């Protein structure tokens, strides 16, 4: 992995993202550029599947930085996200010291809470120096974590440091590139948002989504790619539990390409809807007249 310099302008950021197959709107490229130049975390919010997580992956590859990912979930705590002590190794060290007659409790306490007994989780790993430059830290789907963990992040996002009671304060020599994503299943507290630059990642317009499909599914025909995008854009106007994101558009286009489909027909759409819609109620709604209506809209010249 080769270390690359940070983009020197918004246009350079757009070019960098495009070179890795990520076709971003200028507004997203601008806030990403500012995040890198200002050393501020970037908070990306939007529906699932619109490309929030992909930004971190693209930056990691394009800049030659390590990608450290923290996948959030309900019940996530410090021991899973930051650090925990290797208690088994500590116990062995204590017994060996006792067997050797070492009774200096203060020294023993200092020894067993040394760096070698610490198991470092993603947030602590992101604060360590790296010869390739500060890593890209992806805190993914923060809205899935509890509010208590969200509050814990404030020190890290403000000062890029964590305080460990038995060990002291660990501070990053250079701030990592931090990307935080949320699908907005709950509101994130203002205290965290204030520490970040913010951007809402929306569904792309038809023209940009078509360009994305052509980039990510190079073998697809021009006719089929246009029909796919029109169909997906029309679906997003329906009252579904979960509208398809860009990720689902790419999956569906890939599936149709693998089946050597030349155009959308009721049969091929019905057979492959599972690549596009992920809830049975939504698939059921796409039967009969609704399917015929959307299909006609997508395939009309």
Ordered list of secondary-structure elements with their pairings:
Elements: H1 10-19, H2 26-38, E1 42-45, H3 52-63, E2 67-71, H4 78-81, E3 83-85, H5 87-99, H6 105-112, E4 118-120, H7 122-125, E5 136-140, H8 147-159, E6 161-164, E7 168-171, E8 177-182, H9 190-193, E9 197-200, H10 206-216, H11 222-235, H12 246-258, H13 266-272, H14 280-285, H15 289-299
Parallel strand pairs: 1-8, 1-9, 2-5, 5-8
Antiparallel strand pairs: 3-4, 6-7
Helix pairs in contact: 1-2, 10-11, 10-12, 11-15
CATH topology of the largest domain: Rossmann fold
Number of domains: 3
Count every helix, treating DSSP H or I runs of 4 or more residues as helices. 15
Which bin fits the share of residues in helices?
A: 40-55%
Tally of strands: 9
Task: Please compute the radius of gyration using only Cα atoms.
Answer: 24 Å
Largest sheet: 5 strands, parallel
Written as H for each helix and E for each strand, in order along the chain, the element string is: HHEHEHEHHEHEHEEEHEHHHHHH
Query: How would the global form be characterised?
Result: elongated
The mean pLDDT is 92
- The first-level CATH class name of the largest domain: Alpha Beta
Stretches where pLDDT is under 50 for at least 5 consecutive residues are none
Could you say what the CATH architecture of the largest domain is?
A: 3-Layer(aba) Sandwich
Q: Given the helix and strand composition, which structural class is it?
A: alpha/beta
Strand order of the largest sheet: 2-5-8-1-9
Report the CATH superfamily of the largest domain: P-loop containing nucleotide triphosphate hydrolases
Task: State the end-to-end CA separation.
Answer: 46 Å
How large is the share of residues in beta strands?
5-15%
């Amino acid at each position: 992995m080769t270390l690359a310099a940070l983009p020197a302008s918004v246009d350079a950021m757009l070019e960098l993202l495009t070179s890795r197959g990520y076709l971003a709107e200028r507004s997203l490229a601008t806030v990403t550029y500012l995040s890198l130049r200002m050393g501020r975390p970037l908070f990306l919010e939007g529906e699932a599947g619109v490309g929030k997580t992909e930004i971190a992956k693209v930056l990691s590859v394009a800049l030659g930085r390590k990608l450290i990912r923290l996948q959030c979930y309900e019940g996530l705590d410090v021991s899973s996200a930051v650090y925990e002590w290797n208690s088994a190794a500590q116990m062995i060290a204590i017994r060996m010291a006792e067997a050797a007659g070492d009774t200096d409790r203060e020294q023993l306490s200092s020894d067993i809470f040394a760096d070698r007994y610490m198991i470092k989780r993603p947030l602590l790993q992101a604060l360590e120096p790296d010869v390739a430059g500060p890593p890209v830290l992806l805190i993914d789907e923060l809205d899935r974590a509890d509010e208590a963990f969200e509050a814990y992040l404030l020190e890290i996002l403000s000062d890029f440091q964590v305080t460990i009671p038995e060990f002291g304060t660990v501070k990053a020599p250079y701030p990592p590139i931090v990307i935080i994503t949320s699908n907005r299943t709950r509101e994130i507290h203002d205290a965290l948002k204030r520490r970040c630059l913010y951007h809402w990642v929306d569904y792309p317009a038809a023209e940009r989504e078509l360009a994305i499909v052509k980039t990510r599914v190079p073998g697809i025909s021009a006719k089929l790619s246009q029909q796919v995008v029109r169909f997906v854009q029309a679906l997003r106007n329906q009252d579904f539990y979960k509208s398809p994101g860009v990720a689902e558009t790419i999956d569906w286009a890939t599936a149709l390409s693998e089946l050597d489909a030349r155009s959308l027909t009721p049969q091929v759409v019905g057979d492959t809807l599972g690549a596009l819609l992920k809830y049975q109620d939504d698939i059921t709604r796409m039967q009969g007249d609704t399917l015929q209506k959307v299909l006609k809209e997508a395939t009309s010249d």
